[in-house]
Amino acid sequence: MLTVRRPFRLDKTHGKIMGVCAGLANYFGIDTVWFRAGFLTAAVIGFGSPVIIYLVIGLVADSQSA
Fold it and tell me: Using the 8-state DSSP alphabet, how is residue 10 labeled?
């Protein structure tokens, strides 16, 4: 069965800061809590580089239309 994915969009209505984790959760169909926990863990272990990746995604990606 072929599934069609919609394009990735930031979800600013359900997001806490820029809507990146909420947008990723919507895109992959996973609960937002898992993306937030994963980002927090990666930020602690990755010595801040995930924060830079988060900012780049937040600045480059399009917002979800209401």
Answer: B
